[in-house]
Amino acid sequence: GENVEQHPSTLSVQEGDSAVIKCTYSDSASNYFPWYKQELGKGPQLIIDIRSNVGEKKDQRIAVTLNKTAKHFSLHITETQPEDSAVYFCAATGNTNAGKSTFGDGTTLTVKP
Amino acid sequence: SAVISQKPSRDICQRGTSLTIQCQVDSQVTMMFWYRQQPGQSLTLIATANQGSEATYESGFVIDKFPISRPNLTFSTLTVSNMSPEDSSIYLCSVEDAMNTEAFFGQGTRLTVV
Predict the structure, then answer these.
(1) Do B107 and A43 touch (CB under 8 A)?
(2) 8 Å CB contact between B31 and B96
(3) Measured between beta carbons, which residues in chain B are less than 8 angstroms from residue A36?
């Protein structure tokens, strides 16, 4: 089955700096790569996703890149704000169900004001 | 988007007892998913629930321990049976949008077994 590794497990940045979280996956058949933000006491919320036919996607301060050859994808957050502090999960799925994903172990991002 | 309500939001249970978690969605969905998130850890898929058929369980999860019901297209329940402290986790319900392009999660049920 699919195996997703995520690094780093914790990340602390100063407000205004950029944050980068990286994930690798094992199954070359995976074709959908979502990123979720989980705040304390809440369920994960999709913040951005990318499909295998695209190399990069951007939404305001958030961007995701995908390298299918190397089987890795990354989340980039620019101009970080304290409200970006949360746990971020990457995920991968190779079938047609976005809801049936294999998750990375999560990255706890702390943005210091 | 889909709005998902889970009940209860949290519970403290005695070992050996069972707890049923409810998941209600504000729109009809084909598939519903149940995940477990152990303290400080990632999400692990327990099973996929389709209306009108038995749930499909992932490796390491069995129906006797985690029976699931899916009586209609907007509702599902997950029961955690014969609980032990190792079952202490957050249990999350998830659905896909109509195009299967995005997943939505409930707020989770935080279960503590004592």
Answers:
(1) yes
(2) yes
(3) 105
**CB–CB of A105 and B42 under 8 A?**
yes
Contact A97 B42 (CB under 8 A): no
Asked if A34 has any chain B CB less than 8 Å from its own CB, the reply is: yes
Band of pLDDT at residue B56, cut at 50, 70 and 90: very high
Contact B44, B36 (CB under 8 A): yes
Cα B91 from Cα B108, distance rounded (Å):
5
Q: Specify the pairing of strand A62-67 against strand A10-14.
A: unpaired
- Separation of CA B95 from chain center: 10
Determine whether the interchain pair A105/B43 forms a contact, defined as Cβ–Cβ distance below 8 Å: no
Among the residue ranges A12-26, B17-31, B32-46, B90-104, the one predicted with the least confidence is B90-104
A33: Cα within 13 Å, side-chain hemisphere: 36
- H-helix or E-strand spanning residue B57: strand B56-57
B86 CA: distance to closest CA in chain A (Å): 19
A98 → closest Cβ in B42, B45, B103 = B103
Question: Which pLDDT does position A35 carry in this prediction?
Answer: 96
Position A96 pLDDT exceeds 70: no
Q: How many residues does chain A have?
A: 113
